[in-house]
Amino acid sequence: MNVRLAELKDLTYIDHLQRKNSSVLGWMSKATFEREIPLLRVLLAELDREPVGYLYHGSERKTCKIHQACIEYDLRGQSYGAALVNTLLDHLRVFGVQNVMLHCGSEMAANHFWQAMGFYCQAIRQGGFIRNRDINIWRYDLQPALFITQTEPSSKAIRWATRK
User: Fold this and answer.
1) Are 123 and 153 in contact (CB under 8 A)?
2) pLDDT single digits (tens) 86-143
3) Secondary structure (DSSP) of 21-41
4) Nearest-5° angle of CA 92, CA 70, CA 53?
5) Could you give the strand order of the β-sheet that contains 2-5, starting from the edge strand earlier in sequence?
6) 120-126 and 63-71 beta bridge pairing
7) Hey, which residues does 105 pair with through a beta bridge?
């Protein structure tokens, strides 16, 4: 298992995996990744030199946001995602980033992953009208926080909106 910075040659794979999982990840254009890869904001996980997942994050400011993280479905639960996240956290510590945040739909199994990685649910906000779900806002403190607001994450299922 190897984690490295993504390169433009990895764009086709990243776009493919993101499209395959867009129902849970959301969707970002290929141009977004094309712009962000040279800015060193995409990590790639490899197994035997074959890509198995990626993590796309924002800039190294006070708070860094994880925009997307995805592992091939049949390889989930085997520490590849943990390796991506730990690589990012180690990198952000060097830059003095204070915390990492991400949003995760309440119905997603990924909520258990983030909690197991040491993230805590800071807040819950209402999602969009169509899916009618909650969005858990996860946080990981790289520097000790003065105040911590923590809540039990929502596990509300999607309730698709119907037209009347």
Assistant:
1) no
2) 999 999 999 999 999 999 999 899 999 999 999 999 999 887 766 678 999 999 999 8
3) THHHH----HHHHHHHGGGT-
4) 85
5) 2-5, 42-47, 50-57, 63-71, 99-105, 134-141, 120-126
6) unpaired
7) 135
> What does the chain come to in residues?
164
Q: What is the largest distance, in Å, between two alpha-carbon atoms of the chain?
A: 54
Amino acid at 112: H
Q: Specify the pTM.
A: 0.90
Q: Are 139 and 122 spatial neighbours (Cβ–Cβ below 8 Å)? A: yes
What lies within 8 Å, CB to CB, of 92 at 6+ separation is 60, 64, 100, 142
For residue 98, with 0-12 CB atoms within 10 Å meaning exposed, 13-18 middle and 19 or more buried, which class applies?
middle
